[in-house]
Amino acid sequence: MSGLVVLVLGILLALGATAIVFGALRPFILSIGETSSANTCLKVQISPVLCHYNGTLTSVVVERKAGVGSLKEIKFIFKNSSGASVNIDRKTENFTELERRSFSFSAPPVSQPVSVDLAPVLNDGTLCSLTGTPFPCIFGEVIDQPTACNDGEDNDGDGWFDVTDPGCPLPQDDNETNDDNNGRPACSNEADDADPEDTLIDGNDPGCTEGPGDLDETDILPQCSDGIDNDNDTLIDYGSNSSNDPGCADPIDDDETNIISGALDFCTGFGDDRDLLYNVTINLFTKADGTKSFNAIRKSDGLVLRQNFSDEKFFGDNSNGALTTTYSITPTCGGVDITYSVQNPTSQSQNPPNLRVDGIMQVVSGDFYVLDIKDAGFTRRVTKPNGQVGTLYLGSNGLDGFGGTGTLAYPNFYYSPVIVAYDNSFSVGTGIQYPYLNYKHDVVPQLARVTSGLQTGTWRHEYREFKPLMPANQQRTYTISVRFTKPSSWIVTLDPYKKYFKQTYGNSQQTAQNRHPIHGVELAYSQFYNAQTNPRSYQSTGYFNELPSVGWGSFVDGFIAQTKALGYERAMIWTPSGLYNPQGSCTSPENQGSGQHCNYPPAFMDFLPHLDSTAGNFSKFAQNNLELGFWWGRSGQTPNPEQWNPTSISNADYENAQQISFLTNQLLLAKQRNAKTIGLDYFGGMPAFQRDDWIDDMKSLTINQVLFVHEGSGPDFLHRKMGNFYWPSSYIWWTQYNKSLIESPDVLSHYLNKGSEIWTWHRDTIYWNLNSVQKMASYGFTPVYFGYPTQYSINVANLDYDLVECFNDFDDDSDGDVDWPYDDGCDSATDTSETE
User: Fold this and answer.
1) What is the pLDDT of residues 457-471, one digit of tens each?
2) How far apart are CA 345 and CA 473, in angstroms?
3) CA atoms within a 13 Å half-sphere pointing along the CA-CB vector of 145
4) Do the Cβ atoms of 603 and 575 come closer than 8 Å?
């Protein structure tokens, strides 16, 4: 085939094709028509993979994935932005399984087509139903000369086609051939290539650092686990054998060089966060039952940091003995690593054990601080007014974000699986290291004061309630790192978790944090509902007055004028498609009742006809140098059926092609309507391991031109790919603290994901002033204000975006040390001066 038109800007063409590579635009099964050929229609699987219009010629590439039915023709239904449509039939003789075929239309079938939908016609004349999910048509110029990457052919015989072939980064390329030996790059060929260090595949392999096009899965291992004598001292890697290198503090240490130091300087000279950890004496013990234990003593003064007890247990079995759990304790700089091996030799799934460290010798009264790992990332003083300290922090029981009770776990609730606490004597931090994206199970971090037995009055760090159950015939490994340091340097106790996190997931993909405040507006409230005149519940006064029946013009002009007058550079629109009928009977997984429980609508881009036809007004935001965003209501859920005012909504499943097709269509409409930011409401409706795949697809579909923001503190591994959206409030989120107060920068997320944005939505009146906006910006947050137009009349034109000195990544006092906890002039991240 020749003459297939493509975009000069290959990246725009890739928008349509990349969806196939990443699984976001999956082929959908056409529903049956009104004849007796229902089963045949169900077995016909065709889908468009490209629709391109250049002003004079329209080309559509159709792929037949599978099917036994014979096709007579395909009915193409083109539609433009005003809703006008035209139907065109094309013959499809001998259209075989797995074939891709191009159909060209010499004149535009409809003025400036924006989408195409398909319906197959069988040989017996049966017309099968439309897919119901129009495929977007892209406008662009013509490349006159066909190349191997735009001719519609599989030139290298690997089953991949033009820009869907990993060998074609651009349509102008004239060679589809890939560099590996089985047709696709090593990191997208669905195989574990010849990297002897693991059995991981494609994107799950840490060796795939350059994405799906990476040609080598081999991991870049740190010196202390690469099997090489890097410092030429005849000793190799980390371990306890005589052949191991004493220069290795742990397996992910990237320097085998031995540190020459005195007996009290075990944690000196590394040149990283280990230099701030305590020098501790670790004494290992073998108890009467053969199990291992340890105590930890601060070398400088003999203070016992962790005491061993005869009745202690490093794990609690929950399987009635069905699982085999063993552990080892390895002393290291500043503490120990406890490595667990959990094996399920049975043929049934089993309940995993609780893993824990008892005997932490911190106070039960007086000053006591705990790291808040939900929508915070800083420590809070938890001492009660009577001077006593409570008995339980973090854990699985409490109020979720909607005031209801639920199980609170990582990664669906907590940011990281870590526990940090300190008193006036020392701080201790633990973190559990396990490959979540492989194991796909939650874990609950819990800090508890022991109230019975020999350990009464000591503290327990526990990782518990692993869900779902451990599958049959599997073995899993976990490591709990325990580190000690002085109270003011508490964050460095998470140094081993940070190293594991970076090695497993990588650095933040966001490098330029935008802290300019966001001016938001919510368009619809249920009290405005009128079945006849305002069925979508839009506000109908002021510059909203035309939304119910006329179009976007008056609102867009008024909102832009107000946004600019208040000095904002970023704007966001909530409920752009309005609300479902609040008097309906729609139900959701977490609420059974009125239609209000289904709001905000997942169909956030399904506009009424008069709003769809005037959506071009959104281009005015860019013309006024404003960044436009839309809030995607219930983005992790889909309606049932896929219509306005559905009977129910359900949590989305990334493996469900129909649901992903619905979400993809909504996303592409938002991109088409000039969205630069999309807030993902209730994104947690989809499991976190699926969210990790879906956010990659969404970024690919929008050509990495849209910033996505996760409602609530999305987990650390997702935050590296997208922003987080916090709700500091006195009445919302589970609380063991006063959550309305933001007392510090988010130190935890900065430590793990420097550069990732954190939005803070301020509903409490204590934040409705310029001083609070200024404080949030100086702490590194992006303040968000939205509601009725006059609710937040805060002018931010003269806002100072300088961060506080002890959190600004700059050596302000020129002493060679930067920020807390490294500069001695900084007592905390909130300090405004590095000078001692």
Assistant:
1) 999 999 999 999 999
2) 5
3) 4
4) no
Using pLDDT thresholds of 50, 70 and 90, give the confidence band for residue 418. Answer: very high
Residues 437/468, Cβ–Cβ less than 8 Å: no
Label residue 646 left, alpha or beta by phi (over 0 means left) and psi (-120 to 50 means alpha): beta
d(CA 309, CA 287): 10
309 contact partners, CB below 8 Å, separation of at least 6: 358, 359, 453, 454, 455
322-377, pLDDT tens digit by residue? 999 999 999 999 999 999 999 999 999 999 999 999 999 999 999 999 999 988 88
Task: Report whether 465 contacts 443 (CB < 8 A).
Answer: yes
Would you state the structure tokens that stand for residue 572, as one six-digit string? 């966001």
C-alpha to C-alpha distance for 657 and 642, rounded to whole angstroms: 13
Tell me how far apart the alpha carbons of residues 518 and 520 are, in angstroms, rounded to a whole number: 6
Contact 34, 722 (CB under 8 A): no
Q: How far apart are CA 480 and CA 356, in angstroms?
A: 8
**Where do the DSSP E strands lie in 84-200?**
85-91, 100-105, 113-122, 135-136, 138-139
* Band of pLDDT at residue 173, cut at 50, 70 and 90: low
pTM of the model: 0.70
Residue 598: beta bridge partners? none
Dump pLDDT digits (tens) for 190-240: 677 766 556 677 666 767 765 555 667 676 778 888 888 886 666 788 876
| Residue 145: Cβ-neighbour burial (10 angstroms; 0-12, 13-18, 19+) | exposed
Q: How far apart are CA 23 and CA 204, in angstroms?
A: 16
What distance in Å separates the CA atoms of residue 220 and residue 197, rounded to the nearest whole number?
A: 10
**Residue 206, both tokens:** 């840490």
- CA distance linking residue 71 with residue 41, whole number of Å: 10
Q: How far is CA 272 from CA 276, 399, 743, in A?
A: 8, 38, 27
Q: For the chain, how many residues are written?
A: 836
CA-based end-to-end distance of the chain? 74
Amino acid at site 456? T
DSSP structure string for 367-423: --EEE-TTTT-SEEE---TTSB--SEEE-SEEE-TTS-EEE--BTTT-SSSEEEEE-
Question: If you ran DSSP here, which 8-state letter would residue 469 be given?
Answer: P
The DSSP result for 486-497, as a single string, is: -GGGGGGGGHHH
Residue 787 DSSP label: S
DSSP string, 75-101: EEEEEETTS-EEEEEEE-TT--TT-EE
Question: CB-based contacts of 716: which residues, under 8 Å, 6+ apart?
Answer: 411, 415, 416, 501, 505, 749, 752, 753
Give SS3 for 807: helix
In the sheet with 45-53, reading across from the earlier edge strand, the strands are 100-105, 58-66, 45-53, 138-139
490 CB contacts (<8 Å, ≥6 apart)?
Answer: 369, 371, 379, 420, 422, 427, 429, 821
Rounded alpha-carbon distances, angstroms, from residue 474 to 314, 359, 821: 21, 31, 42
DSSP bridge partners of 164: none
Other CB atoms within 10 Å distance of the CB of residue 590: 14
Which of 600, 601, 606, 582 has its CA nearest to residue 530?
582
Decide: helix, strand or coil at residue 292: strand
CB 462, CB 431: distance < 8 Å? no
